Sequence to fold (201 residues):
Amino acid sequence: MTNMAEAIMKRMNAHGRGRWVCTPKDFLDIGSRGAVDQALSRLVWAGRLRRAGRGLYDLPRISTVLNRPAPVDLDAAVAALARRDGIRILPDGATAAHRLGLTNAVPARASYVTDGATRTIKIDGGTIRFRHAGPRVMRWAGRPAASAVQAMRWLGPDAVRDVRVVSTLKRCLPDAAKRDLSRNGRDLPGWALSVVRDIAA
Fold:
């Protein structure tokens, strides 16, 4: 195996199995694009890395139950796309609400909003939808309360005031997210402000 391949594997191992998805762009500090592409292809062929999607690679965690590679971490794959393309990405409202335990409805497919182009990408045999969103939505990208805001927008002004929703958010949101909501109420729809006060109380 070449020095380039070993350098790639060293970086992958430093992140841990199943925790990081990379693109060729993540290794351009250690070699040319052609050399990186060639090394990644050889590592996939040798079974040391998995090609998770077009231009996406990971070091899969092995499921002890199934005795086979576990599915790709979708959040890590989305983060890799954001790094590669220089865009911001947020889970859409239904996905955020499901993750926060605010709905039992499981989205048919993972869906995200972005300040990049609307498109569909195949990752690990599944399909992920990216929908372009405007500045009002994307201003929450990278902030602690991002998922909560997306979920509240999806629920709407009536459902979000349900006592079960408020109590769930109050219980599951970390303090950093609650502070983010309290300090940035001006960026929220007016109907969400009373809910935020209850959550942060």
